[in-house]
Write a structure and sequence with these properties.
Layout lengths: L20 H12 L24 E8 L2 E7 L1 H7 L17 H13 L2 E9 L8 E10 L8 E9 L10 E2 L6 E4 L34
Antiparallel strand pairs: 1-2, 1-5, 3-4, 3-6, 3-7, 4-5
Length: 213
């Protein structure tokens, strides 16, 4: 499978933080962890600091291009899948037709790195209500400094029912893709000092005299 890391221009947007208060608080926490404009580290995350978001939150680990598995997953995610979400690929939350695009978006969050926010929908039927939601992806560095983790959350509205839910990407809604390239401090060139001239004990300048005679 070819993973396209560039998101089509028509789907890019510089929209503000998510309207959902849970996602707003999670992104605010992530931004507060940035050190010298660097992407936050996985080890920086303190679960007690994101208590409101924990039931909806997850940590993704990149295992291959376009493939990321959940290493941590909140209870609300278990309820959506009707099974333990830990160890599952993030694509497990989506219908087959949406998985290639989700792979591209997740890979872009790692590679840019970028904040990605996606509006999702699980359509209803005569026996099931429609469920809508937002998935937020926030990149993280690992112990080596590489962006191979994501702090994320999936917050939904609507009655989930008693069967697993799979989502599509909502049509007609822009996908937020906000690159987070670090702003490196400018390096100033310091002039190299000139080598001082040698002086005699009396303070006179010593000159090298060559006698070719």
């Amino acid at each position: 499978m070819n993973i396209v890391t560039e998101i089509p221009q028509r789907r890019r947007t510089d929209s503000a933080t998510p309207r959902n208060p849970t996602l707003q608080s999670l992104e605010k926490y992530w931004r507060a962890l940035r050190h010298a404009q660097r992407i936050p580290s996985r080890n920086d995350i303190e679960p007690r600091q994101i208590d409101e978001a924990l039931p909806h939150a997850f940590i993704l680990q990149r295992v291959a291009p376009g493939v990321a598995r959940m290493r941590v997953a909140g209870q609300q995610l278990h309820d959506l899948l009707k099974m333990d979400a830990r160890g599952m690929p993030v694509s497990a939350f989506f219908v087959p037709d949406a998985r290639d695009q989700i792979a591209e978006l997740v890979e872009s969050a790692f590679k840019s790195p970028a904040i990605v926010s996606i509006q999702v929908v699980s359509h209803g039927s005569l026996l099931r209500n429609e469920v809508t939601g937002t998935m937020l992806l926030l990149p993280l560095r690992d112990a080596k400094g590489d962006t191979t983790r994501i702090l994320g959350a999936l917050v939904t509205d609507g009655n989930r029912g008693n069967r697993p839910r799979r989502f599509e990407i909502a049509q007609g809604v822009p996908i937020r893709h906000e690159p987070q390239a670090p702003q490196l401090a400018s390096v100033q060139s310091i002039p190299r000092p000139e080598k001082p001239k040698e002086r005699s004990p009396a303070g006179r300048v010593l000159r090298l005299v060559v006698n070719n005679g």
